[in-house]
């Protein structure tokens, strides 16, 4: 695999995550419901994923037999994120909302990595990692004040 591909995927994913809250907030205003907007967002995403799975992947559904129930919770995280950011972005501003979300993601990531939670390998917290997250937290304050 091209070493640049994961970087490009993360870059484009980040652009999508920054674009998703204001798009869903606009949809929420148009339909009068953040929850309905989140549902529509997930329905569109689900439709695209079904098409991609049918076109390119075709992993058999029997693969689900070995899946533990807690592994399905990821969809709930995504649903909450979509609804929460559609609600928060117009109230906090996109930059503030995203810096708060990114800061909380980084703190959670440090904990998950340190303890090797959710099936990831352990990657102990270091002072350098803590310093990096603290810089992001300072950025949250600066963006909020700006």
Question: How would you portray this structure in words?
Answer:
This protein has 146 residues and is mostly helical. It has one domain. The chain contains five helices and no strands. Helix 3 runs antiparallel to helix 4 and helix 4 runs antiparallel to helix 5. It is globular and about 50 Å long. The mean pLDDT is 91.
Topology:
Layout: H1 4-31, H2 34-57, H3 74-92, H4 94-115, H5 127-145
Helix pairs in contact: 1-2, 1-3, 2-3, 3-4, 4-5
Transmembrane segments: 34-56, 68-88, 94-112, 124-143
Keywords: Membrane, Transmembrane, Transmembrane helix
Pfam families: DMT_YdcZ
- Strand content is under 5%
Tally of distinct domains: 1
List unreliable stretches of 5+ residues: none
Integer-rounded radius of gyration: 18 Å
Mean model confidence by pLDDT? 91
How would you characterize the largest beta sheet?
A: none
Class based on secondary structure composition and strand pairing: mainly alpha
Oligomeric form: single chain
Order of helices and strands: HHHHH
* Quantity of strands, as a count: 0
Number of helices: 5
The percent of residues in helical segments reads over 70%
N→C terminal distance:
42 Å
Shape: globular
What is the gist of this entry?
The protein has 146 residues and is mostly helical. It contains five helices and no strands. Helix 1 runs antiparallel to helix 2, helix 2 packs across helix 3 and helix 3 (74-92) runs antiparallel to helix 4.
What brief labels describe this structure?
5 helices; globular; 146 residues; mainly alpha; membrane; YdcZ; EamA-like transporter family protein; transmembrane helix; single chain
């Amino acid at each position: 695999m091209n070493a640049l591909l994961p970087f490009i995927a993360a870059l484009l994913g980040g652009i999508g995550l920054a674009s998703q809250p204001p798009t869903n907030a606009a949809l929420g205003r148009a339909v009068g419901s953040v929850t309905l907007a989140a549902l529509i967002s997930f329905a569109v995403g689900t439709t695209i994923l079904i098409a991609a799975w049918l076109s390119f992947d075709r992993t058999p559904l029997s693969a689900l037999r070995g899946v533990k129930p807690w592994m399905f919770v990821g969809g709930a995280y995504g649903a909450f994120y979509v609804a929460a950011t559609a609600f928060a972005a117009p109230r906090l501003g996109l930059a503030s909302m995203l810096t708060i979300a990114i800061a909380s993601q980084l703190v959670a990531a440090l904990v998950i990595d340190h303890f090797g939670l959710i099936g990831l390998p352990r990657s102990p917290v270091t002072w350098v990692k803590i310093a990096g997250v603290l810089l992001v937290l300072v950025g949250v304050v600066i963006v909020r004040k700006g």
